[in-house]
Amino acid sequence: MKYYFSRFSFGILCLLTLSPLGSFAAVSSTGIDNESRQQIAQVVTRALQASPEIAAAYSAVQAAEARLTGAGLPLNNPELEAEAENTDISTYRIGINQTIDWHDKRGALEQVARQELLLAQQQYQALKLARSTDLLDAIGRIIVSQNIEELARKRTTLLKRFERLAVKRHAAGDISRNDLELARLALAEAAMQEARSQSDVLQAQMDFQVLSGHPLDTPLQMPHVQAGPATPDSDERLAQQHPEVQSALIAAQVARQRIQSVDRGRKADPSFGLAAGQEGEETLVALSFSLPLQVRNNFENDVEAARAEALQADQLAQQSYRKLRARIAGTRDQYRLMAAAWMHWMDSGQVSLEKRIELLDTLWQSGELSTTDYLLQLQQTLDTRITGTELQSELWDAWVRWLSASGTLENWLTGEKKK
Known about the structure:
- The radius of gyration is 36 Å and the shape is elongated.
- It has ten helices and seven strands.
- It has a single domain, classed as Outer membrane efflux proteins (OEP), CATH 1.20.1600.10.
- Residues about 1-30 have low confidence and may be disordered.
- The protein is α+β, with helices and mostly antiparallel strands.
- The protein starts with a strand and ends in a 5-residue tail after the last helix.
- Helix 2 (about 50-70) packs antiparallel against helix 3 (about 105-170), helix 3 (about 105-170) packs antiparallel against helix 9 (about 370-405) and helix 7 (about 300-345) packs antiparallel against helix 9.
- One of its GO terms (molecular function) is efflux transmembrane transporter activity.
- This is Efflux family outer membrane protein.
């Protein structure tokens, strides 16, 4: 049994069931919607868990964690030296050298690594959001294409019956040869449309399998939308919390932290050494000190490059935020437009498909409706129903796009409210 959106009232949609004969009847939506949403959430979760791309992003998070742990360790290890010489006089010496992190390079590297970990985590969340959006889009197309395929199959069934009746009426002399050929032509066209709709179902299923790695073997229903998008007052908060914007902002922070890291890294660190040994009968003790002289190159250009990259990252973060604000506002307006169109569609007063076809049959068989008019009105009736299904698909697409733009998709799947 297929489920469709019903009329939108005070931000809440009720579900309508499409009976096997095509009639609509209002039903309680809460239980059905929760079950549908949970089933879709399970499908999306399984697909994400099996995704190599998501697994790779999670490995990047683990790598960033390992780098952060390593960045917290001392930067320089001690150096052990040993020397021995056996000539007329036996000489040996052993010593140790240690380079001192005089400018706290480790602290700067640790700050960069910490921000890089946050960046990897946000990129992981952004990728999950993007792939969840793709999966919901693919699921919606499968459901809608299956609904349209069912209507196309119903069209073929009705026209087969009509063609059989036309043959009988032609044999009885009630209709002309031309009317019979019209019936056969309509049946052939319906068969082609059914084949195209079946191809659309296969294409939608293939697109889902490309994303998930396996076919969609769970019958799903289209859940209704429980509430409309938030008001424009929340756009700034939603945009700032979005994983894409957070990734861009953290990337800018990483770039700023690298300025300090590069600046400290270019500075020379002193090395101290202590050695002890014996030369013949004499005991030797030596202290050493070394410091690179940055005379030929002080690496200041590296710092300037880091500053320019930080400025670039800041500008990209601002652009990301502007794009998200525009996406949130645009998708919200698109959703409201489609919701209004759907409400108008449902308020227009739909006659059940079964009753409409029965009426057309009665008028045709009584001679009050010509074969041409019958086929035309039957085609219009079924095309209108398909148009309604496509409108439902557009409403779903608009809703999913707004969930993605606002970063609330995961909350909707889990039934949680965005904090």
